[in-house]
Inverse folding.
């Protein structure tokens, strides 16, 4: 699904990623853990194609496609989804309009038929019900006046509607109470399938109680310094990142 | 025709000399007096230059350098009119009322062409307009050929009326100067949806003047959708006087034209009168649009709200000048003015000049202005969801305007505005 080799990147001339090697096979969920400033968010932005995050070396392939050569919208259309750490407020853009425009833009890019207003509403209502969210969510401006938890739930709603092949969750758990955390986890778990993979970026082990990863990678100072099974997350929780650093 | 006298103020005066006997009201001394006084004024003032404070940011030389013929001698065609927005529509082609193309039906109030009603308009025409102060109003007064006359009797809910103005696009550049008179008697109401359009490839000048009277407790909603042709000049002036408890709501969308001035003078003349003046300007290429408002708080307990939003791309230039004058008697005035601009190109420019002049002591008055570019984070968020860059930019521009347009309560007006806004955006503008 995703294959990253020797990836280096800088922000404002400052090297942040210093050679990442990572492979996420089809159907697997991988967690990336690491302390603040280790490059976790930079990795997610580089994969999503944000301006200002300059790739200086290495490659990232998504099902054989050179991801780094694509525009952000092209990456989305082939199935890459980034759940933002800080979802952006869009005053004046209705959530329903936003979701439908995004869904249809992706479908158009893939040569699929677009959904009309009724078809969209039907699909959106079904996802809302699954995620135990109110239909009010569709009527409001995108993330405008949403609480932290609502913003994250809105990310999960987008993910559920857009049905990506690869979901990158950038610290989606930060600032969430346990109920919201479960909703996020349920959203990811609902998508679990042989052709769905996820990269769960988190500072804490807590989210991984609900989204059990196949592999855990520790990112420190722009490099993956350790990889292991789900037990590695528990180990980190007990010993902290300092012990990994000392070992590395 | 001699090009030297075809252009500039002299050109208009020269043509006025030739048209004197053919303009409406030739045999009415009061009309003749209005025209002659205006001509005298226009002769001495000419077109305002940028040395005049109110015209500091708008250069009228492209208008004064261009040659025009008054539309009186041009017979325009009114074919290919777009579908009406509502049941009643008054159609103007090259500034003249076209009853044949209008659908007026029967209602509790009359809608007429000004030329045919002129004998009954003595004392009304010219009661609010100030040609001595505004040379373009003098030009209109000197040369007006027709216009809309609406009177809604006391207590009558007038519903919707569309005022549709078209330029025919004749081979000779036309100049037309309609004078529109709108009067709402006590407790009456009316919603006017005004549109102005013309062909893209023809140069013309549309110089309308409105005189609007809103009596006690009456409400006029006036929505203007300006989509003149790309080579057109529109220089419009509105005078509105609102009596006690009355409301005048104006929303102006400037999306067309090469050089546009939207000048509005509102006097809140009676206690508890209110005025909303909102608008949006959508500019690209080398377009220039100027919104200049004068709000006169001349009575106590009045409220005014102004929000203007301008989107600029290419080498376009936008101007907003807003003056709020609070007279000494106008205690407990509540005035608010906001001007926001979104710059989509480094070559675009917005000039903003708010002005508060307050002579009363118990007053709440504020103004603000913001200028910004599209937010990079918002743009990335949309693109990361699969929305192509141009569509994402369009969504954000429309979102910027949405706040202003959502405030328009009348659904027909709002639909007309939304259609114009969504039609404005084209990729790679």
């Amino acid at each position: 699904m995703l294959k990253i080799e020797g990836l280096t990147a800088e922000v404002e001339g400052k090297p942040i990623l210093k050679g990442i090697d990572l492979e996420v096979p089809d159907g697997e969920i991988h967690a990336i853990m690491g302390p603040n400033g280790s490059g976790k968010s930079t990795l997610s932005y580089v994969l999503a194609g944000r301006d200002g995050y300059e790739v200086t070396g290495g490659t990232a392939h998504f099902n054989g496609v050179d991801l780094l050569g694509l525009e952000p919208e092209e990456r989305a259309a082939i199935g890459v989804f980034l759940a933002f750490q800080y979802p952006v407020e869009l005053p004046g853009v209705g959530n329903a309009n936003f979701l439908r425009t995004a869904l249809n833009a992706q479908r158009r890019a893939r040569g699929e038929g677009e959904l009309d207003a009724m078809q969209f509403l039907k699909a959106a209502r079904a996802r809302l019900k699954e995620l135990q969210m109110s239909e009010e969510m569709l009527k409001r401006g995108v993330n405008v006046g949403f609480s932290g938890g609502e913003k994250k739930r809105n990310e999960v709603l987008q993910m559920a509607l857009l049905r990506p092949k690869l979901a990158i969750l950038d610290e989606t758990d930060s600032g969430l109470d346990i109920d919201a955390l479960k909703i996020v986890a349920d959203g990811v778990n609902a998508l679990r399938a042989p052709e769905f993979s996820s990269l769960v970026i988190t500072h804490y082990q807590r989210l991984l109680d609900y989204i059990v990863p196949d592999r855990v990678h520790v990112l420190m100072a722009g490099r993956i310094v350790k990889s292991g099974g789900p037990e590695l997350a528990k180990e980190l929780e007990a010993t902290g990142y300092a012990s990994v650093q000392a070992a590395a | 025709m001699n090009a030297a006298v075809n252009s500039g103020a002299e050109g208009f005066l020269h043509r006025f000399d030739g048209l004197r006997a053919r303009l409406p009201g030739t045999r009415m001394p009061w009309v003749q007096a209005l025209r002659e006084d205006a001509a005298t004024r226009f002769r001495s003032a000419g077109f305002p230059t940028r040395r005049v404070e109110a015209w500091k940011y708008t250069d009228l030389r492209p208008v004064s350098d261009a040659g025009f013929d008054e539309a009186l001698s041009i017979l325009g065609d009114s074919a290919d009119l777009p579908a009406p927005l509502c049941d009643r529509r008054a159609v103007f082609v090259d500034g003249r009322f076209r009853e044949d193309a209008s659908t007026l039906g029967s209602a509790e109030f009359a809608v007429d062409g000004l030329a045919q009603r002129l004998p009954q308009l003595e004392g009304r025409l010219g009661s609010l307009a100030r040609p001595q102060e505004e040379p373009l109003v003098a030009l209109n007064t000197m040369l007006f050929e027709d216009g809309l006359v609406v009177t809604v009797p006391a207590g009558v809910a007038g519903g919707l009326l569309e005022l549709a103005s078209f330029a025919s696009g004749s081979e000779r550049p036309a100049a037309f100067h309609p004078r529109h008179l709108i009067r709402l008697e006590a407790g009456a109401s009316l919603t006017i949806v005004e549109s102005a359009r013309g062909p893209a490839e023809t140069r013309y000048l549309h110089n309308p003047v409105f005189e609007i009277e809103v009596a006690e407790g009456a409400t006029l909603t006036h929505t203007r959708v300006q989509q003149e042709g790309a080579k057109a000049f529109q220089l419009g002036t509105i005078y509105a006087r609102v009596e006690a408890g009355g409301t005048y709501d104006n929303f102006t969308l400037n999306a067309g034209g090469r050089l546009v001035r939207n000048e509005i003078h509102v006097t809140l003349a009676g206690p508890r009168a209110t005025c909303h003046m909102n608008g949006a300007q959508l500019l690209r290429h080398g377009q220039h649009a100027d919104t200049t408002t004068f709000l006169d708080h001349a009575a106590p307990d009045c409220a005014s709200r102004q929000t203007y939003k301008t989107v600029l791309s290419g080498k376009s230039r936008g101007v907003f000048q807003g003056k709020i004058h609070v007279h000494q008697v106008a205690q407990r005035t509540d005035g608010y003015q906001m001007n926001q601009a979104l710059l989509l190109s480094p070559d675009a420019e917005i000039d903003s000049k708010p002005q508060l002049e307050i002579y009363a002591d118990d007053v709440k008055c504020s103004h603000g202005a913001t200028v910004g570019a599209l937010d990079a984070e918002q743009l990335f968020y949309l693109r990361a969801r699969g929305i192509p860059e141009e569509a994402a930019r369009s969504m954000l521009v429309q979102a910027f305007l949405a706040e202003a347009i959502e405030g328009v309560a009348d659904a027909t007006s709002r639909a007309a505005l939304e259609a114009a806004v969504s039609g404005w955006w084209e990729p790679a503008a």
Q: What stands out?
A: Chain A touches chain B at residues 48-51, 71-73, 75-77, 82, 84, 87-88, 90-93, 98, 101-103, 105-106, 109, 158, 162 (CB under 8 Å). The domain at 2-247 of chain A is CATH 3.40.50.300 (Rossmann fold).
